[in-house]
Write a structure and sequence with these properties.
- This protein is α/β, with parallel strands linked by helices and about 240 residues long.
- It has a single domain, classed as Vaccinia Virus protein VP39 (Rossmann fold).
- It has seven helices and 13 strands.
- The strands form four sheets. A seven-stranded mixed β-sheet has the order 7-6-5-8-9-13-12, sandwiched between helices. It has a two-stranded antiparallel ribbon with strand order 1-4.
Length: about 240
């Protein structure tokens, strides 16, 4: 049976500004994501994008390339002292799901879905080695490739490694920052691989991904923390 994936509704304004993320009310498209197992490969220790996914995917594995991100996410997952409080995010999701008094249940729903938080290494052919994961029904990747790739060749190579995590017919949901060349975190400036919307579409096509849906939200306000021009969401499936 097909499930539902959430995509940003680019016609709405942010309903909440988190410390680093704007949340917008999602819209749904039926019959796109199928199965029970999801792998997340996203920047930092963010988990807000997985709250809605936990409605449909009962088993998730979160992959992180940074030990500090693993530590921070493990603190939250196991309710340890000093964990970041994601209540603002679960509250928004509760409102969007018409469950305004159930944000704690939504928090627990996501925590029960996350089975493992693992280290990944894109220098390896199998990025989860020595762990062998089952192939996923869906892989979500948010802004990670922007920050681990230096050029087009690295982007293509790393995207291909992400695709290898998918079952035939499985779906990739990719969030991309368009025309971003840097980001500043805690006063330190980090390089970002700068690319266009067409580059992403062409990369998917070259690697055999079939695009099901694509949307772009242009930047509405500026700050000195980064210089992206737009956020792009692309949903595509792997050939059978």
């Amino acid at each position: 049976m097909g499930t539902t994936f959430f995509t940003p509704n680019f016609q709405t304004s942010p309903v909440l500004q988190g410390p680093k993320t704007a949340y917008t009310k999602p819209k749904t498209r039926e019959g796109q994501a199928m199965g029970n197992f999801l792998i997340d490969l996203s920047i930092g220790s963010f988990i807000h994008h997985l709250y809605s996914a936990s409605n449909f995917f009962k088993e998730m594995v979160v992959l992180k390339s940074n030990e500090k991100c693993i530590m921070e996410l493990s603190r939250w997952l196991h309710d340890r002292t000093g964990a970041y409080d994601w209540k603002h995010a679960s509250t928004v999701v509760a409102e969007l799901e018409d469950k305004r008094d159930q944000h704690q249940n939504i928090e627990m729903r996501l925590k029960s879905s996350i089975r493992q938080v693992l280290k990944c290494n894109f220098e390896q052919e199998n990025i989860t080695s020595p762990v062998e994961l089952p192939l996923a029904d869906c892989v979500v990747s948010g802004l990670l490739l922007d920050n681990i790739c230096k050029n087009e060749d690295e982007y293509m190579k790393n995207l291909e490694k992400i695709i290898q995590l998918l079952k035939p017919g499985g779906q990739l949901l990719l969030f991309s920052s368009i025309d971003k060349s840097y980001m500043i975190v805690s006063g330190e400036r980090f390089h970002s691989f700068k690319y266009s919307e067409n580059f992403v579409k062409n990369a998917f096509d070259k690697l055999g991904l079939i695009i099901d849906y694509c949307a772009v939200q242009r930047r509405r306000s500026m700050n000195e923390c980064n210089d992206y021009k737009a956020i792009m969401f692309t949903a595509a499936h792997k050939g059978e």
